[in-house]
Design goal:
Number of domains: 3
Number of strands: 30
Radius of gyration: 21 Å
CATH architecture of the largest domain: Beta Barrel
Number of helices: 7
Strand content: over 45%
CATH class of the largest domain: Mainly Beta
Largest sheet: 6 strands, mixed, barrel
Distance between the termini: 14 Å
CATH topology of the largest domain: Cathepsin D, subunit A, domain 1
């Protein structure tokens, strides 16, 4: 189901150079290991506590975040004092000033991280996308301090102090340009073949995204493509994009064919074109077990059990949100499968096929296969309706 795609990519104006590895370094020291959950598009969710607050909070683990952040509604609910600043963040949607929460301590299982400065954003939209509270994002402020192993097979994260580390023999070590967000060269092949730089973004719940400026300047796509209009969500709110498929995407020695690709009219230049062409997201990166080693300026890719997973090519033309305990349909695209099925904004999605779990991510999973007709049970103005939708194949 091509639907609510989380795009979390937050930048700060400071760009730091990559740290040069020291050959005299001691071996990297293991610190801790903890589990994580995955949401739609491969998004990583970890549990952590803040300061003296006893409740655990949900954080997105995100290489696309140029700092570390908290949700404004979480700050309000927990009585966390915020400080206005002139610092600007740029993301998918807009650039704006942010408040900060300074000198905080984050408690992960087996690890205490001191002296963190959290910027504050409103993530209530992202909470409605996933049906669970999103309290913040763990990005550069964390990754810059440690070596982080992300295992998508075991759903575990291992954390090490910086030092010498042995990478798996069968993997491949990348050497991205490291500022506050890693930038990796990849090869795109469609109408032509081109090598270009893209953000390496585990916080983006998609496979691949190109800015439309990059697309037009480089004449990437063959004319046979027929992109579909979709709605997506970023930290700054809703954005519209076009969705298509590129013939091939190659990262290092690893190639993927017929990759779902989002085309973004980047009016705020969040992707920093012409330096950067777009981003590689976690629906593709989750196909590797990763070792993210910012201190050495390296990221290791090792294909895992998901490497050959089928890509999601289904397009429905509507979004669903979890609001006050109900799953609500919205953003119906004209002439889409959703409109043809008779779906209307505000319909309450009670069930799909025989699934009445009220679990927004399970509903998305059911709708992710193209050309398979699905039965929707909805409530509209107090009436129970049965609709049938047939997701479309994107091209």
């Amino acid at each position: 189901m091509k639907k609510n795609i989380l795009l979390i990519i937050l930048f700060f104006p400071l760009i730091c150079g990559a740290h040069t590895p020291d050959s005299t370094q001691p071996e990297a020291k293991f610190i801790t290991s903890f589990s994580f959950r995955q949401f739609t598009g491969g998004i990583i969710i970890v549990k952590a506590r803040l300061q003296n607050i006893p409740d655990t909070l949900n954080f997105v683990f995100d290489t696309g975040c140029g700092g570390i952040s908290l949700d404004s509604t979480t700050c309000s609910a927990l009585g966390i004092q915020t400080t206005p600043t002139d610092t600007m963040t740029t993301g998918m949607g807009e650039a704006h000033k942010v408040d900060f929460v300074f000198d905080q301590t984050l408690y992960l299982p087996g690890l205490t991280v001191d002296h963190l400065n959290f910027h504050v954003n409103d993530y209530s939209l992202l909470t409605s996308v996933y049906g669970e509270k999103i309290d913040g994002i763990i990005g550069y402020g964390f990754f810059s301090r440690y070596i982080v192993k992300i295992n998508y097979d075991s759903l575990r994260i291992d954390v090490y102090d910086p030092g010498k580390i042995r990478y798996p023999r069968k993997g491949m070590v990348l050497h991205p340009a490291l500022g506050n967000v890693p930038v990796q060269t990849a090869q795109v092949k469609d109408a032509q073949k081109i090598d270009f730089d893209f953000y390496f973004d585990t916080g983006a719940g998609l496979c691949f995204l190109m800015s439309e400026n990059f697309l037009k300047d480089k004449n990437i796509l063959q004319p046979m493509h027929h992109p579909a209009l979709i709605n997506a969500e970023g930290f700054a709110g809703k954005v519209q994009m076009n969705l298509t498929v590129v013939k091939q995407l190659k990262i290092g020695k690893y190639s993927f064919r017929s990759v779902p690709t989002y085309l973004y009219a980047d009016t705020s230049n969040a992707t920093s074109y012409p330096r950067i062409g777009g981003l590689i997201g976690n629906d593709l990166l989750r196909r590797f077990n990763l070792i993210v080693n910012y201190p050495a300026g390296e990221i290791d890719l090792l294909p895992n059990s998901h490497f050959n997973d089928l890509f999601d090519y289904a397009y429905t033309g509507f979004s669903i949100y979890y609001v006050h305990g109900k799953i609500i349909a919205d953003d119906i695209i004209a002439r889409s499968p959703a409109e043809k099925a008779g779906l209307q904004s505000g319909d309450i999605l009670l069930g799909i096929e025989n699934d009445f779990s009220n679990n927004i991510q399970q509903y998305r999973d059911i709708l992710q296969f193209s050309k398979e007709k699905r039965k929707l049970i909805v409530i509209r103005n107090g009436q129970l309706l049965q609709l049938f939708i047939k997701p479309k194949f994107i091209s």
